[in-house]
Amino acid sequence: MKRGSFWSALAQAIVYTAAATGIAVAQTVTGPVDGAIGLQPAATEVARDIENFHTLLLWIITAVTLFVLALLLFVMIRFNKNANPTPKKFTHNITVEVIWTVVPVLILVFISVFSFPLLFKQERIPQAELTIKATGNTWRWDYSYPDQGVDITSLPLSEEDSIAQNRPFRMAVDEPMYVPAGVNVRMLVTSNDVIHAFSVPSFGIKEDAVPGRINETWFNVPKEGVYYGFCQELCGTLHAFMPIEVRVVSKAEFDRWVQSKGGQLASAAPVTETPATPATTPADPSAAPAPAPPATPG
Fold first, then answer.
1. Cβ distance 18 to 27 under 8 Å?
2. What pLDDT shows up at residue 267?
3. pLDDT tier at 271 (50, 70, 90 boundaries)?
4. Which CATH architecture has domain 44-124?
């Protein structure tokens, strides 16, 4: 491993450990790091739940693997030809068969207790405060903000521009997707050509972009920062070069960005003049009120 890769991996591991233990870390950029181990630091509640579920499964898989290994070693030592020259002649053991059927079922039931609520949280889209439509193309992403009237095309930066702007090559784009922090964002994902996949690992989202179909997902990032993702579908030879850059900013900065793109703030409803109510004229002269009689001088 290169020296730079080692220090990058070490920094990522520190951030990952601190995030897992609840220590506040000034994290502004989250994305893949060369030589890092483990998942990207979670930026959303769903991503943290996925990380915890992954850790739980890792412990279960480790225990099952060690148990099976112990059984294999026991069988090889206890029932080899030297230790057991006269093998037993039986074909079934009801007790063993019941155990190796019931125990895996119980393990799966235990896993489902944690997996079903997580799936429900991922698939149940809460009341959204911002809607964004992401459309996959060969080889770019188009983003549309229907409520704000903003449409942008996101292209990856060239190596020269990445170096000049001190931004990660093959991850940074010329038009990032902006979202405000602490807001429920509803993502509509589709494609214009082949099947793509909109994925931001630190958000815990990965949604297929299928031509002629709109899929939905959501996220809520409470912390401002820059987050990276990629197309994670085998959509062609260059699918790995469809980066996704999401900038989570304050509400005020998001409003300024919308206005800089010629859009309109969703909360700013257009002011309409109330037309003056014309005076009504009685259709029937007899229906008009009679004039008051003149005052009688005293």
1. no
2. 59
3. very low
4. Orthogonal Bundle (1.10)
